[in-house]
Amino acid sequence: MVPHWLHLLSILFLLLGFATAVVLIIEEVRHPQHMWIMNIVWPVVALFGTALTIRAYFRYGRLTIMDAAKKAKSGGEPPDRIKTPFPLMVGKSTLDCGSGCALGDIGAEWLAFAFPMIAVLCGWHWLLREKLFAVWVLDFIFAFVIGIAFQYFTIVPMRHLEMAAEIGCGAEGGCSIAERVADRHVWFHGLRESVCLPAHPRRQSRDPASSSGS
User: Fold this and answer.
1) DSSP β-bridge partners for residue 124
2) Helix (H, G, I), strand (E, B), or coil: what is residue 33?
3) Which residue of 22, 103, 139, 145 pairs with 108 in a disulfide if CB–CB is 3.0 to 4.6 A?
4) Looking at residue 193, what is its pLDDT?
């Protein structure tokens, strides 16, 4: 069984994630991001990034708010390109993918919880013995679709693309996001499996021969 302390720790971590997300939502209402999709990305990342996300936002995320972008248009280099170190720029560029995948996982998990038939359609019983693995299939589908959408709405405004170019960019981004989503889910689900399965209560055999002595 899952240790009681681990259960309490997970609840505490969830509450911390919600609290940090609320802080960023309030901050973005007061100071919206220049790119609208980032108003969604930052709070979603805060759900699992917690204190690290808060620190990153107030140190580097505030450089891309609407007011800062307007000042940059009046002349000079955008402040985020000057004051943000390159490793942080690379990390920030992956947040849209990470937030889209996180939303996909959350949506898929709750959908499968509310409608177990969906897990059956994804392979539970007829292909996969554990419901956990079937829901992972749904997780991947949701994360893939939402991840592509978030990537799309991040790339297109930065490049100021026309409609025809947007379609091409979306197709090109789809290949890139497919690799990102696949890589993320390999290590993420692998880590989750290493934690969840050992703590999962082992099922006793239902073979009558094994229970004849009871």
Assistant:
1) 128
2) strand
3) 139
4) 65
> 65 pairs with which residues across the strands?
33
| pLDDT score at 176 | 59
What percentage of the chain exceeds 70 in pLDDT?
67
Q: CA 54, CA 23: separation in Å to the nearest integer?
A: 8
CB 140 within 8 A of CB 180: no
Calculate the dihedral angle through the C-alpha atoms of 119, 174, 160, 30, rounding to the nearest 10 degrees: 30
- The answer for residues whose C-beta is within 8 angstroms of residue 61's C-beta and 6 or more apart is 33, 38, 42, 92
Tokens of 90: 């690379």
pTM: 0.76
**Residue 161 to residues 12, 54, 100, 148, 174: CA-CA distances in angstroms?**
43, 31, 22, 17, 16
Q: Do 4 and 204 touch, CB atoms closer than 8 A?
A: no
What average pLDDT does the structure give for the chain? Answer: 77
Under 8 Å between Cβ of 92 and 84? yes
Cβ-Cβ contacts under 8 Å for 167 (sequence gap 6 or more): none
Q: What is the pLDDT of residue 150?
A: 83
Please give the structure tokens belonging to residue 53.
């996300």
- Cβ count near 45 (within 10 Å): 27
What is the pLDDT at residue 118?
Answer: 92
- Enter the DSSP assignment of 36: T
